[in-house]
Every structure is written in structure tokens, then in C-alpha cells.
Amino acid sequence: MSVLVTGGAGYIGSHTVLALVEAGIRTVVIDNLSTGFSTALPEGVPLFIGDAADENLVEGVIAAHDVSAIIHFAGSVVVPESMRDPLAYYRNNTMTTRNLLNAAVKCNVKNFIFSSTAAVYGNPDQIPVPEIAPTRPLSPYGSSKLMTEIMLHDVATAYGLNYVVLRYFNVAGADPQARIGLQTVGATHLLKIAVEAATGQRAKMEVFGTDYPTPDGSCIRDFIHVTDLAQAHLAALAYLDQGGDSVTLNCGYGRGYSVLETIEAVRRVCGRQFAVQMSPRRNGDIMTMIADTARIGRTLDWTPRYAELETIAAHALAWEEKLLQAREAA
Ligand code: UFG
Fold first, then answer.
1. Pairing state of beta strands 288-289 and 247-251?
2. Atom of ligand 1 lying closest to residue 284 CA
């Protein structure tokens, strides 16, 4: 029996593959390497370079590797890009999952874990946000993920599939041993930008909005360490293996740090100052996003280990320094 990971060469996918392999779980990856890196995979993990929407490929891999569960990461994740090109997002996220599910149903794969996002909530009425909060995505990215959640629910009901939907909050950090991390070119995430500034790759960074009605005026996010998130996928897999019912779970820690606090944490761990410019609000930003974690807490056997902001910042920084050294040596 093995687990098929689509998008396993990407940021969150590769950390999950590493965790699976370290747990002794046989793992096989499909990735089209559009944003992923084959070098992010541990040695010996079979990689099929292709699209998760390619039903022939998926069915072949399921049969050849005796796949009993699918963890589906493959997709597009950039909110502003989804505004410019929504059809690409409905194709890469919604339609791809439709094909993948069709292959899973045909091949009788019963367990499915899906990467969703807190973006499905849009602007929440309530903080922390529970899973039962209204879903009103503000971007085609969020809509494409929400449509997939709905499709998954219908497929599960019709064909007896079981799923766990994980709605990720702000994923950050890197493998604690700096073996892998975020390599995406041009990533816009706060911690990535901050560690680029801390390593001298940017002359300065900006804080988008310091006039929000929050304690320090900047936005607040529930940053979750990518290695803890990877472990949540293993816990979800165990839950389904033990016959758990289909469920949708927020994946965060239930606490928030402001943008300014996050930048301070990076400054502390790197021991250097870097220029930070206070800028106007960024269009479409939500003021505060914090997960209500009650449901994941009572559903999965999952104990986060890296919730300290400084730990997340330190791991992101260590990885960025390694990436920089590798680039300079090349
Ligand atoms: N920010 C800055 N300066 C920067 C980058 C970001 O001040 O250079 C601020 C943003 O304005 C925002 C906060 O840092 O207030 C977090 O921004 P990110 O871009 O890191 O993350 P978002 O919260 O906008 O988006 C993330 C994921 C999305 C997901 C969303 C769900 O990137 O994929 O969370 O809430 F949909």
C-alpha cells in the first residue's frame, strides 16, 4: 500500500512527503514541476512528472503502486494571479481535482486529503473563525478551492469516499534541519519577504497598512509551521485509516501575530536590522485571520511542535541562508 501525493515536489507537498517517508509510509509523487523542484524529494521516492489532471497517468500510478490514499496538493496558489486569470485557477484547482477524483473513484481509492485554504472564508464575521463560518471567498483562488470542497463532498456522498479537507492558515517556516523549504521564485508571503530582507536580498521591505484597528495597527495572521502542517496530513491519514468520517478542518494554531511582530521576530533571530517602510494597505487584505482550532483538536491526534513565532522565523531564515549560499556557489 502506498500514498499518492500530487504536488509532492512543492513547498507544503515536499515537507509532507518527507514526513511520510520518515514515518515509514510508502509514498509516490505526481508533480508537473511547474512550481515544484524534484530536488525537494527524499531519495528513493518515485516521481512521475505529469499532471494530476491526467487520468491515465493517475490510474497507472494507482495500479502500479497499490495506492490506498491520495493527498492532493497540486494546484495554483497566488491570489492576485487568480484575479488576473481566473480560468487558469478553475482549471488548475477545480477541474484538475475533478479528474483526479474520477481516477480515484474508478480505481476504488477510498481515502482523500485535500489542501484547502482559509481564503474560502473571505472576510470573517468572527475571530477565531470556526469551520461553520460562512464561506464567501474574495478571490477566484478561494472560490476554486471552495468549489473543489463542494465537489469532494458530493463525490464522497455518491461513491463512498472519505476525505479530510484541511483549510490552511498562513503557512511559513521550513524543515527544522533546513533540508527543504520554500523555493518558489517570486513568492510574496510576509515571512519569505522578511527573510529575503534579512539576508540582504532586498534593500527594504514594506508593511502594508499600519492603520488597522489592531493593537499595533498592522494585520494579524495565524502563522503555521510547515512541518507541523505536514504532520497534520499524517494525522489526517491515520484518522481516515481508522475509519474516520469525512471532515473539514481548520489548520492553524488558534493564535495570531501581527505583521510588525513578525518582522521583529525575524530581526531578533537574524540579529541584523533591515529597512522596513510603512506603506498603505494592500488591496484585498483581511485585517485578522485566526483559526478556531477546537475541531481539529478533537478530531486528529496532532500535537504541533513549532508554534513559536521565533522558531518559525529561525527555520525560514536558516533555509533562506542555505538557498542563498547554493545560489552564490552556482
Ligand atoms: N505583508 C506585508 N508586507 C509584505 C508581504 C505581506 O506587510 O511584503 C502583509 C500583508 O499585507 C498581510 C500579511 O502580511 O497583511 C500576510 O500576507 P501574506 O501575503 O503573507 O499572506 P495572506 O494572509 O495575504 O495570504 C495567505 C496565503 C493565501 C491564503 C490566505 C488565507 O498566501 O494563499 O493566506 O488567509 F489564501
1. unpaired
2. 24
Residue 185: is its pLDDT beyond 90?
no
Cell numbers given for 31 = 508533480
Q: Does ligand 1 lie within 6 Å of residue 17's CB atom?
A: no
Ligand 1 closest atom vs CA 208: 7
How many other CB atoms are there within 10 angstroms of residue 84's CB atom? 10
pLDDT tens-place string over residues 277-287: 999 999 889 99
Same fold for the pair 2-171+224-251 and 190-221+254-329: no
* Contact present, 251 and 329 (Cβ < 8 Å): no
Its CATH class, for the domain covering 190-221+254-329, is: alpha beta
Compute the distance from residue 241 Cα to the ligand 1 centre, in Å.
34
**% of the chain residues with pLDDT over 90:** 95
How far is residue 254 CA from its own chain's centroid? 16
Pocket of ligand 1, candidates 221, 224, 309: which has the most ligand atoms within 8 Å of its Cβ, to mutate? 221
pLDDT digits (tens, 9 = 90+) for 233-245: 999 999 999 999 9
Is the pLDDT reported for residue 77 higher than 90?
Answer: yes
E strands, the chain, are: 2-6, 27-31, 47-49, 67-72, 111-117, 162-168, 170-172, 204-208, 220-221, 223-225, 247-251, 257-258, 275-279, 288-289
Show me where the domains of the chain are located.
Answer: 2-171+224-251, 190-221+254-329
The CATH architecture of the domain made up of 2-171+224-251 is: 3-Layer(aba) Sandwich (3.40)
Pocket test for ligand 1, best of 145, 210, 253, 259 (most atoms within 8 A of CB): 259
Catalytic (active-site) positions: 141
Confidence at 310, pLDDT banded by 50, 70, 90: very high
Which three three-digit cell numbers place residue 207?
A: 508593511
Residue pair 229/251 in contact (Cβ under 8 Å)? The answer is: yes
Report whether pLDDT(127) > 90.
yes
